[in-house]
Design a protein that fits this description.
Layout: H1 2-7, H2 10-18, E1 33-37, H3 45-51, E2 56-61, H4 64-77, E3 82-86, E4 97-103, H5 108-115, E5 119-129, H6 134-139, E6 144-152, E7 161-168
Parallel strand pairs: 1-2, 1-4, 2-3, 4-5
Antiparallel strand pairs: 5-7, 6-7
Length: 174
């Protein structure tokens, strides 16, 4: 179920990023840098690295064994575009990223606040959530714009899922 959950984001990610969500042309979208925050055992980061071999995917988790597992997966599957960091996201120095994603990591406020220094100026956040997180959305600061909340259908799973797409707004874009 966890793999199916992560595979369900592949088509929406490809579609959104083809539209130039990150401010890049569709050709540039082929070589994105993606950060998976709180990756755990590598979901969705490993799935994204497999499905988008031209993307550079970095998974970050505070548990060393989980980061080591992701490194082993990368080695076993020959995924040169996948890396893992054992660190807190706020301590990560490997920036900037075009897309920062999370699945079951934290509230939207904490996710955006902790990872904001790592986001490129035209980058986007994509949070995988269950039900539409209405309270979390209303708690976001004014400088975080939600530009799309996309319902997801996960084959074989009778549960609500959605993607929350956000971007940082500087003073000039508000």
């Amino acid at each position: 179920q966890h793999l199916a959950d992560c595979l369900a984001v592949v088509e929406p990610m490809a579609r959104q990023l083809r539209r130039g969500v990150s401010g890049q042309s569709s050709a540039a979208a082929d070589s994105l840098r993606v950060l998976d925050v709180g990756s755990g055992g590598g979901l969705p980061g490993v799935v994204l690295a497999v499905m988008f071999p031209h993307w550079q995917v970095v998974c970050v988790d505070t548990v060393g064994k989980k980061a080591a597992f992701i490194r082993q997966v990368a080695a076993e599957l020959g995924l040169r575009n996948l890396a893992a960091e054992h660190a807190r996201v706020e301590a990560l120095k490997d920036a900037p990223f075009d897309v920062i994603t999370s699945r079951a990591f934290a509230s939207l406020v904490d996710f955006t606040r902790l990872s904001r220094p790592l986001l490129t100026p035209l980058g986007v956040w994509m949070a995988m959530k269950g039900k539409v997180p209405t309270q979390e959305l209303s708690a976001l600061p004014d400088d975080v714009a939600v530009f799309h909340v996309e319902p997801l259908s996960v084959p074989g799973l009778d549960a609500e899922r959605c993607l929350v797409w956000m971007r940082a707004m500087d003073k000039d874009r508000r």
